[in-house]
Design goal:
The complex is a heterotrimer. By secondary structure, chain A is mainly α. Chain A has a single domain, classed as MetI-like (MetI-like fold, Orthogonal Bundle), CATH 1.10.3720.10. Chain A has helices at 2-29, 45-54, 61-73, 87-122, 127-141, 144-158, 180-213, 216-223, 228-265, 270-279, 283-311. In chain A, α4 (87-122) packs antiparallel against α5 and α4 packs antiparallel against α9 (228-265). Chain A is globular and about 90 Å long. Chain C folds into two domains: 25-242, Rossmann fold (3-Layer(aba) Sandwich); 271-369, no CATH class. Chain C contains eleven helices and eleven strands. In chain C, the strands form two sheets. A seven-stranded mixed beta sheet of chain C has the order 6-7-8-3-9-10-11, sandwiched between helices. Chain C is globular and about 65 Å long. Classes of the chains: A mainly alpha, B mainly alpha, C alpha/beta.
Chain lengths: 318, 300, 369
């Protein structure tokens, strides 16, 4: 077990290195010269050459990469072009906003999917089952940003129940998730984010529960006269490890995939930050945000794998 | 060796059974598909969507890029503009027809490129195994460290907007998953005895790959690729939504959704139309690939 | 069963190079160890000695049976002979020519002379090709034109007892197990080989179909002048088809000799136990307890000394410390009966070892009931 954990940890290092290479490459594939975008057009060439040397841009790409990596490891993600502020601080502030609604969404989706999936598996062919099937197709086919727009049309424009965009008057500094006046701003983003993982997890739950119900040991339990309720808890306990793994994976996807939903709701998270970086072609900001999000995704996967190996006795890896 | 009875060769008794109609693999796939009405309906729907997009220049009643300030944001069911107009007074029906061309292109072309590239790498990795496999698959693992939307935004965000960049981005995003499926399928086929039998007959690796591995790997890879069409359409419209797709006057469902977002208070239904098109197309592709997967799940 | 010495072909084969006395195939000290990797850096921590220094020869026109429990290395040996997996050490000599060396037969030449019929008839045929195409593939690879290869395939189908008209265009899933195995045989014959390796070729078939296929193999052998290496765990079948038998245990040969000698007078306790495991048709003769208890030991760490000593009823100190030798199988006469057991070697230190001038005692009288 500890061997597996150690091995899994060590295997994460090359992946993280690969992630930094891709993030570094983002600047390289961006068209245009990073220096000319920084300076006025009439800057004398000597001064440009000086700046180039100052930023290390006259070095070979490999050297540039290691210089950049060294800075990143020290927490220096560069400076935003747009407002000349350190990228790291800005990304971290936004990341906090993203991870909170992503967590709420995924937990919500997890609970609902367990209930819906179990009912669908128990009453196969019934109304809930059909609904779940339709929901699953809808959930994987729907563009989340359109869903967000429809939610706004419905709940903000037509019904006027919920605020359409933003994070309320105080912004993220005073935002309190336990105060309805603040939290109502988060409701629609959470629903829009939760639907696709809900659809996928419900489908998985239904499949695994119905598979378990068909297995011999469940038949044995039935034959021994166990109540239907006890059998269901048995089945749910059996799918827990894989369901939790699914939860982690979906959380990772949400953190990365929230960019469009956050844009619709102008929720000040990493998604909105990315949108800003794209609009202003602020490549350092884009790079820093992507790096943090991808790093988080890798770490979540790591935690999920480790947690699963703790929970699931069948994973006997050396 | 003695006691083998002299005379004619022993023949297999089951040959006496009446000759059945010989049906190849694709024949039996079609036979299953024939009775799957949902899939057939969705196939029909896709055909219609494709035809509408192809013939958009002849079908659209107006120039999709001609704006008119006097006719801004007309409702659905308007006498002149059947599906209303957008925030610049452009005819929605025409724009939706033209926009379908871009969306379908973005759904299909990157998947084809990614299947060719990712499939090739996957087959090579799966067949050779060992170090080749390690280099290819560990590289793919790095791409798997990014959620697909994030990877698409990262690449497109750096490359900048434009239809070409969007295609490159989507292709890169779709290569790793296809590569992984192809690798698994190939490794599985590779371990079967008929590949060893082919090697034993002195066939070259190239001949084995093209004659034996490819036909067996093709159908799982194609089925998987078909599920990516709808993902590609959604990703593409998402990028356009962020302004990383076609440049403005051109019609594109994602971009239309983005610009109409400002008008949801005035014409919510018109604003919802482009997204509805994306949804319907993507559901149709998803259901078809589902049906295809079931029909292709033949033992043979 | 006829005498083994008379198995040389009656009519001269134009492909013959070494003459009737030259063995069809000589296998010399062949070895294959599979590494086992583990730990953080995937370091090699151990190896499975799948085939551990095996030597034997196959005469022209004879059938050599290879028996042993599953996992003893039979299939690995077959794949080594076919060059499907690379051997670590050892040599093959095909009709007098060393294989894969500068002066001898090329790999391609080996492939034309040596073919294999695989065990699993499900995975041994490409599911997406009509069987005719599967059979024609080999000749096409070797340069036969498309049309000629097709014709050859159809002729071969008839030869193995399948009507080309009816079966040629069928796919493997439309055939029964026996029919698929016939196709497998036809494919192996397509390159006109001289030696066929039959790796559990009939093991998965029903008994009645098995008999038909065995008869077919016998007929083909006579008609096409073939030599067989017949690998099986089924002792009845091996007895029926073989001229000589080689018994394997944990990657090594423990006994080799003419089939009648081996079955009536097994010298190695492992062979004796295997024979005792066969079910008898007579209820009174049924064994009360399993003669071979437990599973074979882990081939990763084979037992010291004689590898069989952990399961042998006659085990003594010498068995645990010293590995018994089989003798020189390559120099031995085809009629000779060799066993790697201390009990048959005079002066080995085992209490049951014979005096230098007396015959070894039979351990189990299989045929004299």
């Amino acid at each position: 077990m500890w061997m597996y954990a150690l091995r899994r940890l060590i295997l994460t290092i090359p992946i993280l290195l690969g992630v930094t290479i891709i993030c570094f490459a983002l600047v390289q594939i961006a068209p245009g010269d990073p220096i000319t975008s920084l300076v006025r057009p009439d800057t004398p060439p000597e001064q440009i050459a000086m700046l180039r040397a100052y930023y290390g841009l006259d070095q070979p790409v490999v050297v540039q990469y290691f210089m950049w990596l060294w800075r990143v490891l020290q927490g220096n993600f560069g400076t935003s072009i747009a407002n000349n502020a350190p990228v790291a601080a800005e990304v971290m502030r936004a990341f906090a906003n993203t991870i909170v609604i992503a967590l709420i969404s995924v937990v919500l989706a997890f609970i609902v999917s367990l209930i819906l999936g179990t009912i669908a598996a128990l009453r196969q062919g019934g109304i809930v089952d059909r609904l779940v099937t339709a929901l699953a197709v809808f959930g994987i086919s729907v563009p989340t940003f359109w869903l967000a727009v429809v939610l706004v049309i419905f709940f903000a424009v037509n019904l006027n129940w919920l605020p359409a965009t933003g994070m309320g008057s105080g912004g993220s500094d005073t935002f309190n998730y336990f105060d309805w006046n603040d939290f109502k701003f988060a409701v629609m983003p959470i629903i829009a984010l939760a639907l696709p993982p809900l659809a996928i997890m419900t489908r998985t739950t239904r499949a695994s529960i119905s598979e378990i119900l068909n297995q011999d040991f469940i038949q044995t339990l039935r034959a021994k006269g166990l109540s239907e309720f006890a059998i269901i808890t048995h089945a749910i306990r059996n799918i827990m490890p894989s369901a939790v793994a699914m939860l982690g994976l979906q959380l990772g996807y949400l953190i990365g995939g929230s960019v469009l939903v956050e844009t619709v709701f102008t929720w000040p998270g990493t998604g909105a930050l990315l949108n800003k970086a794209i609009l202003t072609r602020d490549i350092p900001l884009l790079q820093g945000t992507i790096l943090v999000l991808a790093g988080a995704f890798v770490l979540i996967n790591l935690v999920v794998d480790l947690a699963q190996s703790l929970v699931d006795p069948r994973i006997k890896r050396t | 060796m003695t006691d083998i009875p002299a005379g004619s060769f022993p023949t297999d008794k089951t040959q006496a059974a009446p000759a059945t109609k010989v049906r190849g693999y694709w024949g039996s796939v079609w036979n299953r598909l024939r009775y799957d009405y949902v899939t057939l309906f969705c196939l029909g729907l896709i055909t219609v969507i494709v035809l509408l997009a192809v013939f958009a220049p002849w079908l659209s009643p107006m120039d999709p890029e001609r704006s008119s300030m006097a006719n801004r944001l007309r409702p659905i069911g308007h006498a002149k503009f059947t599906l209303g107009t957008d925030e610049q007074g452009r005819d929605m029906l025409s724009r939706l027809l033209w926009g379908g061309r871009v969306s379908l292109l973005m759904g299909i072309v990157p998947v084809i490129f990614a299947t060719l590239i990712g499939g090739t790498f996957g087959i090579i990795a799966g067949y050779y195994g060992g170090k080749v496999n390690m280099v290819i698959m560990r590289t793919m693992d790095v791409f798997f460290a990014f959620p697909s939307v994030l990877l698409a935004v990262a690449i497109a965000g750096s490359l900048g907007g434009g239809i070409g960049n969007q295609m490159i981005t989507l292709t890169v995003v779709l290569i790793p998953p296809i590569c992984r499926v192809a690798e698994t399928a190939t490794a599985q086929v590779r371990s079967l005895d008929f590949v060893d039998a082919a090697r034993a007959s002195g066939a070259s690796t190239y001949s084995i790959l093209t004659n034996h591995v490819l036909i067996n790997v093709l159908s799982p890879v194609l089925v998987y690729s078909s599920t990516l069409v709808s993902i590609s359409i959604i990703l593409a419209s998402g990028l356009s939504f962020l302004g990383l797709g076609v440049s403005p006057p051109t019609a594109d469902w994602g971009l239309m959704l983005s610009t109409l977002r400002q008008s949801i208070y005035v014409q919510p239904l018109v604003a919802a139309l482009p997204g509805l098109c994306i949804l319907v197309t993507s559901i149709a592709f998803n259901l078809v690939s589902d049906g295809l997967r079931q029909a292709m799940d033949v033992k043979a | 069963m006829t005498d083994v010495i008379e198995t040389a072909p009656t009519s001269p084969d134009p492909r013959d190079r070494g003459g009737p006395a030259q063995p069809m195939l000589i296998v010399e000290n062949i070895k294959k160890y599979f590494p086992i990797r583990a730990g953080l850096l995937n370091k090699k921590v151990a190896e499975v000695k799948a085939v551990d220094d095996i030597s034997f020869y196959v005469l022209k026109g004879e059938t050599l049976g290879i028996v042993g429990e599953s996992g003893c290395g039979k299939s690995t040996l077959a794949r080594l002979l076919m060059y499907l997996i690379e051997k670590d050490e050892g040599h093959l000599v095909l009709d007098g020519d060393p294989v894969g060396e500068k002066t001898g037969t090329s790999l391609d030449g080996l492939r034309r002379s040596l073919q294999m019929v695989f065990q699993d008839s499900y995975s041994s045929l490409n599911p997406r090709l009509p069987i005719e195409a599967s059979i024609a593939y080999g000749p096409k690879v070797q340069g036969t034109r498309e049309k000629a290869a097709k014709e050859q395939a159809r002729a071969l189908l008839e030869k193995v007892g399948l009507k080309a008209e009816r079966f040629g265009q069928r796919y493997p899933h439309e055939l029964s197990g026996g029919q698929k195995q016939r196709v497998n045989i036809a494919r192996a014959l397509a390159l006109d080989p001289r030696l066929l390796i039959l790796d559990e070729a009939v093991s998965a078939l029903d008994k009645s179909v098995e008999a038909q296929v065995l008869n077919l193999l016998g007929d083909l052998k006579e008609q096409l002048n073939l030599t067989y290496i017949f690998i099986s765990h089924d002792l009845h079948v091996v007895k029926y088809i073989s001229d000589r038998v080689l018994v394997m245990y944990l990657g090594q040969v423990v006994e080799i000799g003419p089939v009648d000698d081996i079955y009536s007078n097994p010298m190695h306790p492992y062979t004796a136990a295997l024979l005792a495991c066969q079910l008898s048709m007579d209820p009174d003769e049924r064994v009360e307890s399993a003669p071979l208890a437990g599973d074979p030991p882990n081939p990763v760490n084979p037992p010291s000394g004689c590898r069989f000593h952990t399961r042998c009823p006659y085990v003594e100190d010498v068995c645990m410390s010293k590995m018994p030798s089989l003798g020189d199988t390559l120099r031995a006469d085809p009629g000779e009966h060799l066993a790697a057991c201390h009990m048959v070697h005079a002066g080995s230190g085992h209490s049951k070892a014979p005096n230098p001038d007396s015959r070894p005692l039979p351990l189990w009288q299989g045929e004299t009931r």
